[in-house]
Amino acid sequence: MSVNSTHKDALFKLQHAGISNTSRRLAVLSILLKAKKPLNVSTIRRLLEGKCNIDKVTVYRTLSLFRKRGIIREIATTSGANYFEIASQENSLHPHFSCRNCGEITCLDPLSFTHAAKLIFSKHDYSIDHIEINISGLCTCCRNSSKKSFYKQEE
Amino acid sequence: MSVNSTHKDALFKLQHAGISNTSRRLAVLSILLKAKKPLNVSTIRRLLEGKCNIDKVTVYRTLSLFRKRGIIREIATTSGANYFEIASQENSLHPHFSCRNCGEITCLDPLSFTHAAKLIFSKHDYSIDHIEINISGLCTCCRNSSKKSFYKQEE
DNA sequence: TAATTATTGCAACTCGGTTGCATTTTTGAT
DNA sequence: ATCAAAAATGCAACCGAGTTGCAATAATTA
Ligand SMILES: [Mn+2]
Ligand SMILES: [Mn+2]
Ligand SMILES: [Zn+2]
Ligand SMILES: [Zn+2]
What we know:
homodimer, 155 residues, alpha+beta, Arc Repressor Mutant, subunit A, Dna Ligase, domain 1, 40% helix, binds zinc ion, DNA-binding
């Protein structure tokens, strides 16, 4: 995919999500579109060096906005930093493999969820220590009471 | 389960894992054994208040040791703090639900992995935003080259 | 154009987690 | 019991991820 087509794709995505296309947002989104694997903020900033002057706060705010609008997915790790990847029909929900040694995160086949589980255990080249399934949303308690909101209110 | 039986259970677990049983380790392990859901470090420390003088560094080192010996599991979240729970045959690998509002983490049925997936989507009381499958271990690259180890060497 | 609103940068901060080092406790051999 | 070696703990200082308040700038809209 050429640089130009990535740029067009980013522009379209922003427009489609009703987000005004600023230089910073286009830059961040383009990085994620070109990425072959999930990226953390420090990596995003490194890839942005030279191309675009952008404060770290802006990167966080941009990613947060993208996530709320469903443009990107956030991936939890135990390493401290969260990772981000494009969320789209072409890049549907899939398992991730993260290496305990180098910390790199690889995307696994986006097969159907149940089908993926079987594959994870059989056909792979990784030595697996640990499998984690994290589901997030609203618990029944919090769904019923709109009052207490200790955590994240927005969305 | 009585306090005494929890204490005995903790003692047994330490002994079985070849970890010398100190007062701090027993205290931390007992907290996790009594817990009904995964706990983060700040919660563990709060539950420890009064019962046992323990530095935060010691809690982290203790949990790290437990994890390396397979006594506990570490659960990643996007919220910054990691969570910990007892890992045993009785408490086998299972999905987790984390509420976007209150941040609380609930353990879901430890059904077989593939079977669980179906249930997650159908029979539940949560409103689901996001499902995440994280698998960790060693990538092929890192398995073959024992040289470069940018991340976590130990285990 | 002028007023309004949205975006960005900067500084300062919070919080989770780590590291180095000195002190205390435990272990284990004599 | 005694003493030396090793392990566990606490303390302080630190690092990195992520957030908040606010002022400055850029983009919209009237
Ligand atoms: Mn992915
Ligand atoms: Mn659990
Ligand atoms: Zn690796
Ligand atoms: Zn909740």
